[in-house]
Amino acid sequence: MADLCPSLTSILHLNPLTIHCSPLPTLHPLPQSQQPLTLPCPGPARRPDLSPALSAGKSQSPNHPQPQDPTTNSSFSFPITSAGIARSERALPKQEDPTTPKLMSIETFDLVLSVNLRGTVDLIRHALPHLSTSPPTGPDSERGIIIVVSSAAAYSGQVGQLAYSASKGAIASLVLPLAREIGPSAGIRAVGIAPAVFHTNMSLPGTDPSGAAEEREQPEAVVKRLKEIGLVEWPPRMGKGEEFARLVGEIVGNSMLNGTVVHLDGAVRFPSKM
After folding, report:
1. pLDDT digit string, tens, across residues 89-117
2. 164 counts as catalytic
3. Which of 109, 164, 198, 270 is catalytic?
4. What is the pLDDT of residues 193-245, one digit of tens each?
5. Is residue 117 within 8 Å of 170, Cβ to Cβ?
6. pTM of the complete model
């Protein structure tokens, strides 16, 4: 896959509330002209059509139409699905009135699955026709990679994470059947990443994990609390965006990484309760 990734020395910052379609993983801040194309996060109330964004352009070869970022005219090598929201709710809420059963909100459950799972599948189904018609590259004649983002919560979900764990577990489960289908038929790989706690706008609201060095610092009090409740092991901190990006780079460059979910969790297994 060297032809697909001539440079793996930059940082790809993944915003968990969006979907990214990126031509290449990067391990340093990208110039404005090379920013990944960000597609809106689909939810039940708004389901944007991803087709125009993925169809907005053709490659130089008229025989191989390939999706391009309309702002940079760079062809896509792979999509990364990183849409994600978390809502905490118990399957059995506290029953305050025995005459009126209180139920878990099915609307909240639907919202989480719609964004996390449906959003992932929606991007996959729109991206595959484009990737399947792109020119094959490298000794294995690969055409691209689908990278999906699961979570450590898929394997060690906590109380209140029923919807979130279900959505991320489903994402992990779709990797193998997807890889078995699109590899032999189209030369496309599928790989998942299951991170634990990473420094993002969702884990630390109000901070900028993609900003200057001082803005990316993880507050000492927050890290101490994470250690106390078992959400970090070693290293004793949250994961960093550049560490996620390095794994993306390895996935792109290593053709034998296929049909599997890579755990990027620093040995963390979530405790049952916070």
Report:
1. 999 999 999 899 999 999 999 999 999 99
2. yes
3. 164
4. 999 988 877 676 655 555 554 455 677 777 888 888 888 889 888 888 889 98
5. yes
6. 0.76
The pLDDT value recorded for residue 241 is 86
